[in-house]
Amino acid sequence: MPPSPRRATLATVAASAGVSVATVSKVLNGRSDVSPATRSLVQSLLQQHDYVAPAPRREQAGLGIVEVQFDTDLNAYSTEIIQGAVEAGAEAGVGIVVSIRGGQARTTAWARGLVAAGRRALIAVTSELTAGQPAALNRARLPLVLIDPLNLPRTRVTSIGSTNFAGGLAATQHLLSLGHRRIAYVGGPATAACNQARLHGYRAAMEAEGAPVLPGYVRSSHFHYQDGVEGGAAVLDLPHAPTAIFAGSDEMAVGIMEAARERGLRIPEDLSIVGFDDTQIAKVTSPPLTTIRQPLREMGQAALRTALRLAEGERVDSHHVELATELVVRGSTAPVPHRL
């Protein structure tokens, strides 16, 4: 991130308003012994100066709280991230708060609110951020760590991910090794960095083997169950349907299983499926899901520890860290049917 601008102080606001520091402090604390006109003027200047109340000193506030923020409803993927963050937080004596922002705007007031609530750092998971949002956090001097960001703002931010390209490559190579050539990819948002890397791994494996990617074999949506049902239906209804599908997430893979079931297809006898994440879902499907293990708990732990280092003013060795993925073979993949 660029160097932080100088933080406005109570004295700065008081001088602009032509009142005492004590008066500004009364306005901040909601005291009633301030005239409405003075209160309105001070509040306006606090906003103009982007004033952020200083965080409580560590000896007063303890080790503090780190917020883990999601853009969408929690699922099996989210649970693994949270578990890792909570485990690392317990080791460090730090509390964890989980929130869902949805589509709400992230502004300077949002950043100030996090600091006022005593947050020491923010971990944003699978979020889509504008350049202004990390800048708002930077002005508030609140460290930000991203996990699997859907996009990377132009400003330099610290992020934690996994080897998505290698995972996509391994998933597709596994299916190719079983004799499949008609392999489709049903993934997440086309603009998401993690999805692009998985798709590129898939394409690289297919190209290296000389296996064509047929029209309609690549689908982009979201990483959710219903998207898997719809994406799976779309590729399975093609004139030359795939014999195997690589799904961008375990949730999508389960949705594809349902689309296959609706069409009377057996897994893996008629259709092989590989997921991505290795959440608890992968172990309880029928048959159990072959998938790419993404070290989600370790990613949550790494994000928490990195956030605390940044909160202490330490420098990090790298602004982007990728943890290794690995193929986990279970019962949802098998050699290509001989009749095809």
From TrEMBL:
Which Pfam families does the entry link to? Answer: LacI (PF00356), Peripla_BP_3 (PF13377)
Q: Extract the InterPro entries matched here.
A: HTH_LacI, LacI/GalR-like_sensor, Lambda_DNA-bd_dom_sf, Peripla_BP_I
KW DNA-binding (keyword) present = yes
Q: Which GO terms describe its molecular function?
A: DNA binding
Q: Which residues form the HTH lacI-type domain?
A: 8-62
- Does the keyword section mention DNA-binding? yes
Looking up PROSITE patterns in the UniProt record yields: HTH_LACI_2
Which top-level group of life is the source organism from?
Answer: Bacteria
Ordered alphabetically, the record's keywords are: DNA-binding, Transcription, Transcription regulation
- Read off the PANTHER family from this record: LACI-RELATED TRANSCRIPTIONAL REPRESSOR, LACTOSE OPERON REPRESSOR
> What name is this protein filed under?
LacI family DNA-binding transcriptional regulator
Q: Which organism is it from?
A: Nonomuraea salmonea
Upper classification of the source organism reads:
Bacteria, Bacillati, Actinomycetota, Actinomycetes, Streptosporangiales
